[in-house]
Amino acid sequence: MRIDRVFRSTGLRVLAVFLVMGLAACVFAGCALGNKGKDLALNPEAGGSQLQGTSSAQLPPAAEPSRPGASPVHPPSQASPSTPVSSPPGVSPTQTPSAVPPSTPVSSSPGTSPGGAPSQVEPSGPVSQGLSPVYRPEVTWDPGELVELKDLDDSFMIDLRYATEDNFTGKKIYSQAKCLLVRGTAEKLIAANREFAEMGYRLKIWDAYRPPSAQRALWEAVPDPAYVANPEKGSIHTKGAAVDVTLVDAEGNELPMPTGFDDFSEKAAIDYDGCAEEQARNRELLAEVMVRNDFARIESEWWHFVDNQASRYPMLDVEFEDIE
């Protein structure tokens, strides 16, 4: 009995030892597996595959081992803010590309008013292309030097109405039919006439330089400053820097206009809209080319144009007989 008890007690102790050892081995193995799992979670490439249920976005990239002499590589987002960034032409670092460079010139189309806004009508007949709205002929400024237009260019049609009785006074006002202008104004008029020639037209001159005596005669007939300048103040015609003109075709026929020369009615105004469409087109074509060549309009007479440099020229007191 006693021996049986001893064996039983010893067997239980041995069994207990084995149980404790087995339990300890299980605990050790579990700890090892846990550490391995943590290593795989932190670095999936170390185990050869990515853990299921873990997205690549949740895992930091594995760092490459540095090579001797190699400089560290920075991702683009970590670039120094002082690093210059090149931009394409026309684009600043903080701007979007511009559609058209600011220096690009813009040509006006026929039917454009001097201020740049589209006019209500377009010119009739052929219109030359590529004419710049800012074109200014180079001229020689020589104040007071009167020249006869035909001596510089004989392609104009000259019809000085005040040298005949075919004018609003019914009398001959000029003693001679000389079309005189200061040289600077004459050269601008020649430049305008060359543009019209490209379209198949040319300028017809109704009036140019006007002696003071003729200005007084016109004022006595129509003392209205809207149409005739007061001789006490002087006319730009008397400076030789203003012209009264219209357009003619290749055969010398006048293009239809809202009125004839020296019509002292509202129809002569440059903004009169009660005329025929063809008349308005021709009126605006005449104005467009004249303004482009450095002439200005007046409101009351569509045919009257003033050299924009007229303020630089003096009033003249020269009669036609004084000019050889």
Report a brief summary of the structure:
This protein is 27% helix and 10% strand.
Describe this structure in words.
With 324 residues, the chain is an alpha+beta fold. The protein has a domain at 146-322: Muramoyl-pentapeptide Carboxypeptidase, domain 2, CATH 3.30.1380.10. The protein has 5 helices and 7 strands, in the order H-E-H-E-E-H-E-H-E-H-E-E. The protein has helices at residues 2-42, 149-152, 183-199, 212-221, 277-292; strands spanning 146-148, 157-158, 180-182, 202-207, 242-248, 295-298, 301-307. The strands form 2 sheets. It has a 5-stranded mixed beta sheet with strand order 2-4-5-7-6, covered by helices on one side. A two-stranded antiparallel sheet has the order 1-3.
Topology pattern, helix = H, strand = E: HEHEEHEHEHEE
Q: Largest sheet, order of strands side by side? A: 2-4-5-7-6
Strand fraction band?
Answer: 5-15%
Please mark out the parts with pLDDT under 50 across 5 or more consecutive residues, or reply none. 35-137
Number of helices: 5
Distance between the termini: 170 Å
- What Rg do the Cα atoms give? 48 Å
Based on the coordinates given, report the CATH architecture of the domain at 146-322: 2-Layer Sandwich
Q: Which structural class do you get from the secondary structure elements?
A: alpha+beta
